[in-house]
Specification:
- By secondary structure, the protein is an alpha/beta fold.
- About 25% of the residues lie in helices and about 25% in strands.
- The protein has a domain of about 130 residues: P-loop containing nucleotide triphosphate hydrolases (Rossmann fold, 3-Layer(aba) Sandwich).
- A 6-stranded parallel sheet has the order 5-2-6-7-1-8, sandwiched between helices. A two-stranded antiparallel sheet has the order 3-4. It has a two-stranded antiparallel sheet with strand order 9-10.
- The chain is elongated and about 55 Å long.
Length: about 200
Amino acid sequence: MTPSLQPVGVGWIEVITGCMFSGKTEELIRRLRRAQFARQRVVVFKPGIDNRYAEDSVGSHSGQRMRSFQVERATDIPGLVGEAQVVGVDEAQFLGPELVEIVERLANEGRRVIVAGLDMDYRGVPFEPLPQLLAVSEYITKNLAICMVCGNPADRSQRVVNRDARFLVGESDAYEARCRRCWDPNNFEPRQEQLGLGQNLSET
């Protein structure tokens, strides 16, 4: 069942999740823009750690942008929501467990809350607070990417730089989408190495 555009006496939570390059932010922006077209008041938030595109906007890998507030912690969100009917949150995995209570409170106030974020880290471990958000949400969308090695549907984020930190903001320089078969959290070789193309590429 598709959510209606306007909450009628009730709020709800929508979660968009999946691996890197699966179109999570693109889908978040699409839903928020539809709400704007319906003349609803929209506000968007992203964590301060994510400055890949701009400090004042969320951005997708495909180049879409939307103005947003940058927050350091989830508890900053309520004071910035104002009269918004629709609240968007991108890169939720960077905002910690406090986000769950904040999102629930906003939905209980009658707002539509749309959250996007990774469901697993590069090791394949559930990325809090997404599991908790999935449990309390009314609508769940799990996007799949395309495996950069074999072309199968991909649901894993392969880190291709040897860093131990769980939080590593990056794009194609740091991550690739992989399927279950091609994903290996202990192998940091990028796609060309997996395919045996590293030497040929370096010589061109």
